[in-house]
Amino acid sequence: MLDSDVTLAGIYRKMHIPDDPGFYEKFYFTPGDLGFQPVDTAVGRLGVLVCWDQWFPESARLITLAGAELLLYPTAIGWDPHDDEAEQRRQLDAWMTVQRGHAIANGIPLAACNRVGFEPAPCATPAASGEGIRFWGNSFVCGPQGELLARASADTEELLITEIDLARGEHVRRMGPFLRDRRIDAYGDLLRCWRD
Predict the structure, then answer these.
(1) Nearest to 59 by CA among 5, 14, 97
(2) Do 12 and 20 contact (CB within 8 A), yes or no?
(3) Phi, psi of 44 (to 5 degrees)
């Protein structure tokens, strides 16, 4: 991450690596090894979580507990061109809902930026349908209660500018003290593998 003066503010390495149609990243990426640490910048402590990380509530929780004031999710996600309209709506709604849920559960504002446009699949790379992917755009910013502050279109490159009150997150966390009221004494099973 670069700060406003273009100096290196910090490094985050994507922790969760996908292996699904169109995103066979486990074959050419190694999971990050730096953990979930926010980066201090001129605008605040930023919690950057990259793409696939957006689906994991543990990532958002850990980086918030480490002191992040704003969650940032740069991503590249879209549809298989053969997905019907109903499936596309479900996928987009799930993508926005899970991230807004992270904002709410942690009482922290969030910005998610996503690509737009179509990228054909390279001949040597298996993609969702062998044809490519249409990125669904819809970059957005939400406040600590999940309220939408700004949202981009599905198909046009745009620059979103909106004000975010970082101090409001502290107020929201006092109204809904989810972080304080966690029952960490009962969370041991979070360390179990799926289907144990």
Answers:
(1) 14
(2) no
(3) 135, -175
Supply the pTM of this predicted model: 0.89
* pLDDT tens per residue across span 95-154: 999 999 999 999 999 999 999 999 887 764 554 445 788 999 999 999 999 999 999 999
Contact 127, 167 (CB under 8 A): no
Does residue 135 sit in helix, strand or coil? strand
- Tell me the helices (H) and strands (E) count for the chain, helix number first: 3, 11
Q: How many Cβ atoms from other residues are within 10 Å of residue 166's Cβ?
A: 14
Q: Which two tokens stand for residue 58?
A: 């543990």
- Listed by start position, the domains of the chain span 19-191
Displacement of CA 149 from its chain's centroid (Å): 16
* Assigned superfamily of 19-191: Carbon-nitrogen hydrolase (3.60.110.10)
d(CA 88, CA 93): 8
pLDDT digits (tens, 9 = 90+) for 147-165: 999 999 999 999 999 999 9
